[in-house]
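Tokens as discussed.
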């Protein structure tokens, strides 16, 4: 007898799998699969009964996506989770303060993983115009990012500035697997509790803060939130982009990359004194240019930061 299932958590060579009928079963894997595919949470597998309620993973389905970190030193990557549908970035109206640069950092990850991003403005019940939410939403919408205006404290909160609120977010998440990114305190736990109908508590807290070690950065498990599935992996929320190369950073800013071909020199660094730089010619008064220039600023900050990281630290 065989079963289709999904890996929800793993502990060395033991896997907890959620079957299509909703049961959690324990499984081990055929050695050749462990070697070849390196099983991770989110993988969809075929199980064969082995007696004693023990199941064996016989097969892994091809992945639609992978959440990973590069390990430049070893010219490889560490895969953390598989078959994720979207990146859910959470920011908030206040405490902690909204940081545009951080959103752009998270978007680098989404791009690197090849995933669409949702940007959630939380704690909007507290919003007092600390930043221009419409502009912030607009500047990422041309990258295909969908924005939501919510209050995790009040699922009935009606969006005042954006089109989509809690209801639309809930609908968008349905049957999807998402990974949460966002600073500590923005309301990720509260939001998940609210979105899951009240009975899911994120236990991970903010383990990511403890250390930068391999273990904390790759720890992950799936959480069944009824209508959607969440990848809980505090480590990937880390802001460090040390594993991304300078070339990759540019590729992860497709809007900037596309315009930078208009610079006179192909190695233009887009500084104020760069000759023939396309961006220097843009009038700061034009609304449209504000978006481009603010994205350029984020790109340059990350590029400069990444270029300063010595090889041995990557
Ligand atoms: N007023 C208000 N407070 C919120 C909202 N969402 C979360 N909080 C509060 O913000 C604090 C941090 O929330 P938490 O979910 O732990 O954030 P996390 O660190 O991202 O998981 C808690 O005290 C929450 O009660 C919201 O939408 N409105
Ligand atoms: Mg939390
Ligand atoms: Zn330039």
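Sequence:
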């Amino acid at each position: 007898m065989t079963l289709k299932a999904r890996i929800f958590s793993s502990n060395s060579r033991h896997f907890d799998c959620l079957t299509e009928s909703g049961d959690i079963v324990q499984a081990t894997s055929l050695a050749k699969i462990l070697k070849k595919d390196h099983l991770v949470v989110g993988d969809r597998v075929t199980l064969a009964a082995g007696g004693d309620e023990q199941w064996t993973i016989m097969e892994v389905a091809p992945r639609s996506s992978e959440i990973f970190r590069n390990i430049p030193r070893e010219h490889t990557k560490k895969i953390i989770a598989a078959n994720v549908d979207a990146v859910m970035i959470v920011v908030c109206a206040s405490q902690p303060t909204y940081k545009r640069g951080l959103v752009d950092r998270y978007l680098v990850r989404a791009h690197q993983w090849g995933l669409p991003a949702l940007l959630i403005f939380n704690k909007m019940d507290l919003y007092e115009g600390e930043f221009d939410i419409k502009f912030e939403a607009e500047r990422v919408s041309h990258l295909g990012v969908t924005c939501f205006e919510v209050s995790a404290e009040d699922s009935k909160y009606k969006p005042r500035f954006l089109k989509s609120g809690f209801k639309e977010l809930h609908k968008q998440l349905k049957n999807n697997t998402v990974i949460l990114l966002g600073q500590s305190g923005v309301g990720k736990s509260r939001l998940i509790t609210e979105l899951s109908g009240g009975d899911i508590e994120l236990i991970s807290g903010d383990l990511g803060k403890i250390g930068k070690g391999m273990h904390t950065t790759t720890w992950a498990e799936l959480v069944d939130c009824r209508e959607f599935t969440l990848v809980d992996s505090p480590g990937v929320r880390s802001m460090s982009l040390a594993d991304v190369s300078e070339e990759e950073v540019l590729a992860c800013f497709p809007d900037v990359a596309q315009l930078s071909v208009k610079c006179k020199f192909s190695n233009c660094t887009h500084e104020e004194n760069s000759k023939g730089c396309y961006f220097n010619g843009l009038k700061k008064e034009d609304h449209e240019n504000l978006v481009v220039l603010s994205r350029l600023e984020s790109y340059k900050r990350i590029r400069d930061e990444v270029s300063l990281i010595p090889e041995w630290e990557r």
